[in-house]
Design brief:
Glutaredoxin; 5-stranded mixed β-sheet; 45% helix; disordered N terminus
Length: 342
């Protein structure tokens, strides 16, 4: 499973053209985004298994009244796509020349016209200005992202767009820069590799990092925006979000390791974290990596010029000392290269 396709997240998707199943009407990507973000689900062979059908029906029910199109894209004819479209679970469009598959990086351009060639498949969210905000590509049979996650991601995207719109209408003093999902993903992967994480474990960690705060979508706005100290009851709601995030990834055994990391991203090395009070090596290494990476980026966003020093101060209490030192070594090598290049 991968959340980062060949086309990088948070970049503009190349324009492409789909067709109605009868081939008579062309549909541009921009046509799908007139009302906001769109979810496109590409399947590689026109067939669809029960896991995908169930996911699409559930997601279609969640999105039907929200104005966000759910588009099932096949290379050509598909009885399953036709049946899903008939019950209004999806809008069915075709990608006979592989333009959409190429734009999302799941088919090589030189192969896209090959009849019957493998095109790849996945779930993609594109926002109202054509920027790719989510990409999920299954690597194993039956490994499909839960409908609840896609809907939650859309909810988060909608909240961000609404906040941006309010900011445009009411100018305010600029705040500190906030790390993007792509920055977090890059740092987590770099730090994980430095600690010997590779292959499937690295993919699972990157997935957990991106989906770690899903459960925050269920925390009421009045708690998130509250300026006064939270009550004990309100803190209980906030501290429940790692468990909620893990639950929202669904019960599939394929997500077991991802859920374990997500559930533990707020655990502290000395056992003072939540929700389970794990300590030391009881905490999955991936969760220890996520906590250090996220804290570093947050400190940097607030203008901290020596994040390593501050992380070292809490190494052994909040953070795994080995992870902190791995991060320090990464930045030390980067500084040395910059010095040599200068």
């Amino acid at each position: 499973m991968s959340t980062t396709p060949r086309t990088p997240l948070d970049t503009t998707v190349a324009p492409f053209r789909l067709t109605e199943p009868d081939g008579a009407t062309g549909v541009e990507l921009a046509d799908l985004l007139t009302g906001g973000a769109a979810v496109l689900v590409l399947v590689d062979d026109g067939a669809i298994d029960d896991a995908r059908s169930a996911m699409l029906r559930e997601l279609g029910d969640r999105l039907r009244d929200g104005g966000c199109p759910l588009v099932l894209v096949t290379p050509g004819e598909s009885d399953a796509a036709r049946s899903l479209a008939a019950v209004r679970a999806v809008r069915w469009l075709c990608d006979p020349d592989g333009e959409a598959a190429a734009a999302f990086g799941i088919v090589e351009r030189r192969k896209r016209l090959r009849k019957g060639g493998h095109r790849g498949q996945g779930v993609f969210i594109v926002d109202r200005v054509g920027v790719l905000r989510l990409a999920f590509q299954p690597q194993e049979p039956g490994q499909w992202i839960p409908a609840s996650f896609v809907a939650s991601r859309l909810s988060r995207l909608g909240s961000h767009e609404a906040t941006a719109a309010r900011a445009r209408q009411t100018p305010a003093e600029p705040g500190p820069p906030v790390a993007s999902d792509e920055e977090m993903d890059d740092l987590v992967r770099t730090l994980a590799r430095a600690l010997g994480v590779s292959g499937t474990a690295l993919t699972q960690l990157a997935t957990a990092s991106r989906f770690r705060d899903l459960g925050m979508t269920a925390v009421p706005d009045e708690i998130i925006t509250k300026s006064e100290p939270l009550t004990d009851e309100e803190w209980d709601v906030v501290r429940a979000h790692p468990e909620r995030s893990a639950e929202m990834l669904g019960p599939s055994p394929l997500f077991a390791d991802v859920r374990a990391i997500v559930r533990a991203t707020h655990e502290h090395y000395d056992g003072s974290g939540y929700p389970q009070g794990l300590s030391g090596d009881e905490i999955p290494l991936g969760a220890r990596i996520v906590l250090v990476a996220e804290t570093h980026l947050a400190l940097r966003a607030m203008g901290d010029t020596d994040t390593i020093a501050h992380l070292r101060e809490r190494a052994g209490t909040l953070f795994d000392p080995a992870v902190v030192e791995a991060l320090a070594a990464i930045f030390g090598r980067a500084a040395l290269r910059a010095q040599q290049a200068g």
